[in-house]
């Protein structure tokens, strides 16, 4: 990407930077560049279609960190894209987050094609399901052609193997024509290890400071102004050039963000500016392990003003109750009271002691000021599935009744629901971590790192697939040929999403939400409002719940009276006119 009408680059580290261009015959040409401050500029026009890179100190030829296309991957030359595109979404007015149903997907494994066009082929299916918004896992370039996307480099570009810049624009255009918003997952806490040349140009990362995935990005250190500009220009690019409706910020708790103004505030400001200019709302959602409502609090209340954040505590409380798993961070959960607390305030840990962390964690949500739709909830995500040793989905370990029960609790809650691709039909394909780094040593280190990580949690090495093995990737590709059971699960998911909309279960206040629970011997939960409620058995034994009503929907055949409900193991009933207390 260029700052002006000629090719230039921020490069305070090299003594000499030269422009390298490639003509249509594949021949390379060297052009001098002039340094002004920390920027080097050329006299070569930034013409769409031009292939180019930079020679650093007469040696290494590297792509522009701001390249908008890398047709040959992150080790090749960049290409300047044409900012113009034949958009047809002129009648698209955007979608606000309240009332949304988000569908998280990985472009490479969602369809047999593994491309943006492959996603387009399933848009009607998603609309029929009840989805309003698709969220793409990261699509920035990475080494090889198989990766979750969180090893991305070149944050202004789109992975060519998925269809490149035009493929992404085709998908967004097609989604908007179907009434679907498109969110993009972006990673600004680290660079991937394969094809990251930013260190040759300048201090994009903080040496010696590491996240669990790579060097910490230089957001607050010396010379960080241009790194912040690099991020903010990428944000503007996604919104303006690609018509993206929202960004999901990966793992913001790993940001080195110590300035008076958080980079998240800056990102939200860009979103607000583009929204005001275009008349189309842009959303910013954070993934955070901090349990800190400051991210979503209003600016005038001292917050960053983001649209929403992921709510892992709700997932953990529900997952432990249904699966019985209590290892690692799940050790802090496991009782109906945990689920009740998260339904009434999003966090279990809001200034409470966490045994897993060995410290007090979190801060309470002001439920009188923050609406529940600002929390994204789910039965699983790419992380909660893929960060298991085998990448096994909940649907591979639970019976259909248990899986649909979890979905019912999520979709009948007032939060913004998100599905992870394939869960809506109980997919039996795993989603393990996979990669295809171009450096064999990186693949070896990644494999060993995964083995060691899971060995600490008691997993046997034989249960952990090799991330670089092509079969690990191929095992994750969704099978769209539904079995009878998968069709039944799909029908249940679709019905639950329809009922969520029909009964306006995405209510924007906690004030009228009732939550009642049983005890450890009779674990059940009932929650809802004066007109509609969900009653659920959270155990392997039949239970009678002292809440009744008029049965509206169930995945089974419970016995519902005006004042009580008889439920079999893991059964639920959605009732109208519930009898509370």
UniProtKB/TrEMBL annotation:
GO cellular component annotations of the record: cytoplasm
Residues the record marks as active site: 250 (nucleophile), 287 (proton donor)
Metal-binding listed as a keyword: no
InterPro entries associated with the record: DUF3459, GH, GH13_cat_dom, Glyco_hydro_13_N, Ig-like_fold, Ig_E-set, Trehalose_TreZ, Trehalose_TreZ_E-set_sf
UniProt keywords, alphabetically: Carbohydrate metabolism, Cytoplasm, Glycosidase, Hydrolase
Residues noted as binding substrate in the record, renumbered to the chain: 248-253, 312-316, 382-387
GO BP, sorted A to Z: trehalose biosynthetic process
SUPFAM superfamilies the UniProt entry points to: (Trans)glycosidases, E set domains
Family: Belongs to the glycosyl hydrolase 13 family.
NCBIfam families xrefs: trehalose_TreZ
Name recorded for this polypeptide: Malto-oligosyltrehalose trehalohydrolase
Lineage: Bacteria, Bacillati, Actinomycetota, Actinomycetes, Mycobacteriales
């Amino acid at each position: 990407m260029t700052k002006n009408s000629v090719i230039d680059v921020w490069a305070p580290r090299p003594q000499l930077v030269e422009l390298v261009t490639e003509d249509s015959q594949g021949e390379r040409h060297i052009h001098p560049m002039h340094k002004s401050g920390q920027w080097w500029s050329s006299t070569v026009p930034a013409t769409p279609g031009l292939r180019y890179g930079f020679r650093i100190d007469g040696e290494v030829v590297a792509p522009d960190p701001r390249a908008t296309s890398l047709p040959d991957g992150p080790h090749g030359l960049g290409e300047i894209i044409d900012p113009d595109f034949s958009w047809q979404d002129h009648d698209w007015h955007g979608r606000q987050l309240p009332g949304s149903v988000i569908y998280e997907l990985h472009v490479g494994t969602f369809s047999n094609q593994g491309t943006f066009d492959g996603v387009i082929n399933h848009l009607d299916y998603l609309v029929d399901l009840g989805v309003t918004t698709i969220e793409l896992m990261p699509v920035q370039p990475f080494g090889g052609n198989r990766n979750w996307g969180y090893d991305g480099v070149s944050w202004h570009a789109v992975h060519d193997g998925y269809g490149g810049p035009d493929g992404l624009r085709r998908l967004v255009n097609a989604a908007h024509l179907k009434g679907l918003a498109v969110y993009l997952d972006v990673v600004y806490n680290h660079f991937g290890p394969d094809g990251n040349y930013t260190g040759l140009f300048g201090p994009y990362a903080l040496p010696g400071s590491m996240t669990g995935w790579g060097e910490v990005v230089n957001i607050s250190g010396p010379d960080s102004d241009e790194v912040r500009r690099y991020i903010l220009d990428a944000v503007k690019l996604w919104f303006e050039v690609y018509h993206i409706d929202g960004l999901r910020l990966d793992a913001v708790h790993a940001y080195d963000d110590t300035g008076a103004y958080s980079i998240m505030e800056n990102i939200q400001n860009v979103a607000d500016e583009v929204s005001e200019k275009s008349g189309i709302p842009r959303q910013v959602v954070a993934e955070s392990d901090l349990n800190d409502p400051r991210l979503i609090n209003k600016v005038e209340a001292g917050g960053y003003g983001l649209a929403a954040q992921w709510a892992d505590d709700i997932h953990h409380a529900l997952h432990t109750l249904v699966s019985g798993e209590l290892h690692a961070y799940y050790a802090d959960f496991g009782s109906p009271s945990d689920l009740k607390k998260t339904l009434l305030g999003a966090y279990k840990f809001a200034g409470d002691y966490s045994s897993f962390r060995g410290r007090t964690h979190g801060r309470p949500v002001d439920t009188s000021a923050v609406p529940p739709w600002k929390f994204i909830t789910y039965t699983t995500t790419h992380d909660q599935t893929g960060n298991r040793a085998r990448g096994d989905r909940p649907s591979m370990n639970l019976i259909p009744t248990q899986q649909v029960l979890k979905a019912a609790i999520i979709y009948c809650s007032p939060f913004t629901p998100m599905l992870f691709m394939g869960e809506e039909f109980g997919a039996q394909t795993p989603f393990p971590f996979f990669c295809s780094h171009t450096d064999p040593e990186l693949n070896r280190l990644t494999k060993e790192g995964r083995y060691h990580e899971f060995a600490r949690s008691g997993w046997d090495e034989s249960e952990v697939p090799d991330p670089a093995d092509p079969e690990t990737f191929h095992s994750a590709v969704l099978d769209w040929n539904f079995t009878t059971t998968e069709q039944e699960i799909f029908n249940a998911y679709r019905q639950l999403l329809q009922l969520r909309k029909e009964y306006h279960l995405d209510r924007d206040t906690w004030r009228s939400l009732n939550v009642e629970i049983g005890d450890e011997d009779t674990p059940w939960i009932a929650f809802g409002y004066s007109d509609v409620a969900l009653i659920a058995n959270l155990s392997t034994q039949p239970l009678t719940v002292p809440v009744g009503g008029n049965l509206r929907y169930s995945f089974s055949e419970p016995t519902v009276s005006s004042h009580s409900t008889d439920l079999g193991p893991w059964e639920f009933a959605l009732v109208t006119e519930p009898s509370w207390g």
